[in-house]
Fold these 3 entries.
Entry 1:
Amino acid sequence: MVFAAPAQAAILPGVNLAGPAFASGKIPGRYGWDYVFPKQQEIDYYTSHGMKLFRLPLSWERLQPEPSGPLDQAYLQHVRDFVTAAQAAGALTIIDIHNYGAYRGQLIGTEEAPVALFTDLWVKLAHEFGSSPSVLFGLMNEPKQKSADEWANFQQQAINAIRKTGATNRILAAGIDWDGAHNFQQVNGTALARLHDPRKALLFEAHQYFDRDSSGTAPDCVSEDQVEGRLAPFADWLEAHHAKGVLGEFGVGRSPACLADLRHAMTYIYSRPSLWYGWTYWAGGPLWGEYMYTLEPKKDGSERPQMEILRDVLQSQPSENHAH
């Protein structure tokens, strides 16, 4: 059966399935103990709730143990298996290099980690997944480079290298300074506006949390009237540049105020549907335990309050264009 990407009249809802990049201080780490890949039951749970987009955070060091070396076949096979299972369930996968702009602790663009390492990784991934329309390429999670112009240049080199392989996948470009939506225009807007994709399949990714400092480190949330102001700078930038975006990370705690913020964020996103390719909540995955933002069901199988909000939102959306 030929797999067709979904029509984009509908925003693709989804979730980060964390696990493959856990225990980043333990490299390579023990599979099944330090880190895991999502299992079929997680794919089934989220797709049964209408989610169609999985962001899969990966460890660059586990995927490519030596600089510019071959990809690790065992880790890569887990990625392949996940992509296949997600596709069979009607969902797309964002391959997310969850490395904050660094390899083995050295920032890309330094003598220890030249840009060639970054482009080499993406060339190898493009050869692996370049013929799969169900895979999107998330170039880098929350790069810590100091200059937006420098980081944009590194991403442009990766985009060029990917396209030279013939890969047609959608590519997600990210910004520096935690890739925040709330300050996207002032921090990253000018630099990222210069990115060019010859295939015109470029998406822009931003993250946004609703605790006081937008860091995603607290269970408390700002008042509901501040939600739109955090998302609008990114959405306005997308509109001004005729671009599409993915809200790649966002999450809230379990308090009534936080749940109100989550509902308001969803309402805002769906009020501007032409700007959004999709969203992926942070986070699902089996290793979270009682993490304040988790969507994983409780041990008794009952749902988290955040999932109840998202389920309500998805059930209220028209279902056309969700089918593949």
Entry 2:
Amino acid sequence: MSIRRRKGSDAWFIDFRTPGGGRIRQTAGTTDRKEAQELHDKLKHEAWRVAKLGDKPRRTFDEAALRYLREQAGKADYKSKVRHVKYWRSIFGIRALDTITRDEILTTLPDRASQKGCDKVLTPSTRNRYLATIRAMLNDAAGDWEWLERAPKLTTAKEPAGRIRWITRDEARRLLAAIDLDWMRDIAAFGFATGLRQSNIIELEWSQVDLQARRAWIHPDQAKARKSIGVPLNAEAVAIVRRQLGLHERYVFSCGGVAPWYWDTKRWMAACKRAGIERFRFHDVRHTWASWHVQGGTPLNRLMELGGWASYEMVLRYAHLAPDHLKPHADAVLMSTEAGAPRLVAVK
């Protein structure tokens, strides 16, 4: 039988042989027999046209999603792409790719986080990431894969410019003192000393550290920009690493001899509250490190290399924190050439 119900399921399942010898097996996505039969007949007709007339087979969103994730495996943002694709599959599923419109995509953009147990409003930048994933997938389908005649044109929404969140050295010392777990305190302190991303610190292995030469390195497959990063270790970073000697055979940082594969966000937020610091994520430790560098006179091109950023534009976000090199030009717009501030005369 071409349509049937599987044991333990009310939904109909389609199963038939194509004229070309292939086999179509998929859920009909409905419990209505008439709707399932209509979809079966449609798929069978399309299979006949492909085999007899040379038409291109129609591909479903599910097929495109699975191929896209296979091709993206190993990318730095793969986990985020999996989350985005999972959401879009819940919307479009077995829909034919060529029936999905621009308006449908834009009106179904998520407003809230889709992770289990998380209920928060998504920022415009996060919504844009969901849009970027489906746009890239549909562009691949229309380009390299040749599954679509053309992809819908999807433009990202304008994102409001946000301030760089950083704290002072006194605030950082208060925060570290407020952290009640040694391994979390050491990881945070190492972040302030090196500017490394959280995952790079947690996954740092002894094979990536040379204490004698006071340096560490991040391999290309571990870096967000997929380029290796050389990390010079200052005296504070060296002291932190030395405290970890003998605690774990492979990883530098550990919790009771076990590599900390997670970050306790609740404890982190509680420590921030005790230290009187608001709206401070762990990633802001990296912003703080970069801000201290700029304020200390580190050139932006050197900071770009130290932080492993892929573009100069990313480093320019911190340039406003040290405008000292512009001071000689400030006097170019004085209203008076005499020393001191100009005298202003009231008009009667």
Entry 3:
Amino acid sequence: MMWPEANFNFIYNSEAQTKVVELLYAVKMLSMIILLPDEHMDPSVVENNLTFEKFIAWTKAASLQYIELEVLLLRFKLQGDYDMESVLQHLGMVDAFQQGQADFSAMSTETDLCLSKVLHKSVVEVNEEGTEAAAAIDIDEVFDCTSCSPTFCANHTFLFFIRHNRTNTLLFCGRFSCP
């Protein structure tokens, strides 16, 4: 997939040897942030050293340059189903899963209700129309980026984040790995 040349927020972080680009959604409340390590850089090094504080510093408006850029990005779709019972219990939501302990009286007149299972399904898809998230990879095209300039060509492993811009809340994150 190729976005035509347009202006994007971009920065090269020399410490992490990583390019960062922000792709705004049409409503501009959300952005997809892509962190593309240099080809010689092991993406797990960037991943393991990335903190929320670093992410915020790298992606704040004052750090980014609004430049004309051609963005080349493979189409992909990531989806997953997660059993959240152990996660929620680890976070302290134990009573909800125990009959006689759970209190759902604000939601139902039934008594003695409890949760038996909590499933979370997430989907992130990037295609010609942009990105869609409801949050495994399907590679449909490969690009030769040698002739494009200036270019952000995500043709190898990268990290992506979908952010609510006003609150800096990360809604989704993932890693795209080429086979």
